[in-house]
Design a protein that fits this description.
Mean pLDDT: 96
Strand order of the largest sheet: 3-2-1-4-5-6-7
Distance between the termini: 35 Å
Bound molecules: nicotinamide-adenine-dinucleotide
Order of helices and strands: EHEHEHEHEHHEHHE
Number of helices: 8
Shape: globular
CATH class: Alpha Beta
CATH superfamily: NAD(P)-binding Rossmann-like Domain
Number of domains: 1
Low-confidence stretches: 1-5
């Protein structure tokens, strides 16, 4: 299958990739990109229908994928995903922990306690549980594995009001990933982070804003004058998951059009 742009590549031929939050947005683009480069893909998320749509898009293009519904914030969710990858495709070579939620848009003092806990449980506990399940499998494999966690530029340096709690969870994702990378690189498991800035999904729209409004805002604010596409975030994820990045350990790759929206 042809990759976009230059000559087709098959960096993931014969490998199995797991992508969480793959029924929409960045996760779907990542799943499609892995399949386009030869991976068999386990697409995971809470709701089955969007996952099936991602699988259909992959199969239409001649790829192979399996939809596995799971809530990554629940104990056992990630283990079930790893087990499904191994059972159906024989190994787990790559994992992308992308599932995440944003609850905010208003000052922190008014954030409902449930929204705080929900963000922590999906964005932080979800990544923690996934890392554990993935590492435990990958370190038993002769070829090890590579993991990419999706954080956010807000984690390192939030510049937008209304995102305090979300930003705290993303700072945790980046710190957790870097620490885990140091703990497990000698087990053959290479862990890195991609931190997107504003990307073309509904998550980067302000309340009541249209895509056209967002494009105007990006033109006025971002050095590149536009936000990133989901394919551009996927390209960064694939690089870090590939052997091209064999000596890249615990890095946080920022893809943000040069600034924040
Ligand atoms: P999205 O809402 O389309 O994708 C998030 C996916 O995660 C959805 O498919 C959702 O169903 C899934 N998900 C949520 N909770 C889950 C759970 N408990 N278990 C399993 N799946 C769950 O939004 P997106 O923009 O594609 O976001 C993907 C990632 O990128 C998120 O981690 C987000 O924080 C991060 N991010 C997005 C932007 C942006 O501007 N869009 C910027 C920085 C970081």
């Amino acid at each position: 299958m042809a990759a976009t742009g230059a000559a087709a590549r098959d960096r993931f031929a014969g490998r199995t990739a797991l992508v969480t939050g793959a029924g929409s947005g960045i996760g779907r683009a990542v799943a499609l990109a892995f399949a386009a480069e030869g991976a068999r893909v386990v697409v995971a998320g809470r709701r089955e229908q969007p996952l099936k749509e991602t699988v259909a898009l992959i199969e239409e293009r001649g790829g192979e994928a399996l939809a596995v519904p799971a809530d990554v914030s629940r104990a056992g969710g990630a283990e079930a995903l790893v087990a499904a990858a191994v059972e159906h495709f024989g190994s787990l070579d790559v994992a992308v922990n992308n599932a995440g939620i944003f609850r905010g848009g208003a000052p922190l003092a008014g954030l409902p306690e449930a929204d705080w806990h929900e963000q922590l449980s999906v964005n932080v506990t979800g990544v923690h549980l996934a890392l554990q399940a993935e590492i435990r499998r990958m370190r038993t494999q002769p070829a090890g594995g590579a993991i990419v966690n999706v954080s956010s530029t807000f984690g390192a340096h939030v510049t937008t009001a209304g995102a305090a709690a979300y930003s705290a969870t993303k700072a945790a994702v980046t710190a957790l990933s870097r620490g885990a990378a140091l703990d497990h690189i000698r087990d053959g498991v290479r862990i890195n982070v991609v931190s997107p800035g504003a990307t073309a999904t509904p998550m980067s729209l302000r309340a009541g804003e249209t895509e056209r409004d967002r494009a105007e805002r990006a033109r006025a604010t971002l050095p590149l004058a536009r936000i990133s596409s989901t394919q551009e975030i996927a390209a960064a994820v694939l690089y870090l998951a590939s052997d091209d990045a064999a000596s890249v350990v615990g890095t946080d790759l920022v893809v943000d059009s040069g600034g924040s929206l």
